[in-house]
Amino acid sequence: MVDITLQGDSLVFEVEGWDKLWALRSRLEIPLAHIKGARVDDDAAKGWWHGVRVGGADIPGVITAGAFYTKGRFVFYDTHKPEHTIVVDLAHETYDALILQVRDPAGAVQLITDSTKNRA
């Protein structure tokens, strides 16, 4: 699970609990200018193939966490439950997208959308 907060001109994605170990990351800080958009997308976390795992854990149906190379994109995952998944599309970052489990997917997308709109 990931907690999202706005800090200045960046969004901070804080990986919680044991997921820090599985994902090999505890925190991602992304400038608002590099966030292209966000959406609720439970299909992004479904299935057993998420791409070539570069680092992290992938146990189909249990956890997908860490860095994966898939469909020509470098993606960071931290998901257990597809129904709580959001996708954050990025530009000019190490990752092309973040696929994350959050407590409130609609609320997280609203936070991201409002933060990026207010920046302009």
Explain this structure.
By secondary structure, the protein is of the alpha+beta class. The mean pLDDT is 93. Strand 6 and strand 7 form a beta hairpin. The protein has one domain. The protein is 17% helix and 48% strand. The strands form 2 sheets. The protein has a 6-stranded mixed β-sheet with strand order 4-8-9-7-6-5. Strands 1-2-3 form a 3-stranded antiparallel β-sheet. It is globular and about 40 Å long.
Structure at a glance:
By secondary structure, the protein is α+β, with helices and mostly antiparallel strands.
Weakly predicted, low-confidence segments: none
- Shape annotation: globular
Number of helices: 2
**Mind telling me the C-alpha Rg?**
13 Å
Task: Describe how the helices and strands are arranged.
Layout: E1 2-7, E2 10-15, H1 19-23, E3 27-31, E4 35-40, E5 52-59, E6 63-70, E7 73-79, E8 85-90, E9 97-101, H2 105-119
Parallel strand pairs: 7-9
Antiparallel strand pairs: 1-2, 2-3, 4-8, 5-6, 6-7, 8-9
Question: What descriptors fit this protein?
Answer:
9 strands; about 120 residues; 6-stranded mixed sheet; alpha+beta; 2 helices; 3-stranded antiparallel sheet; globular
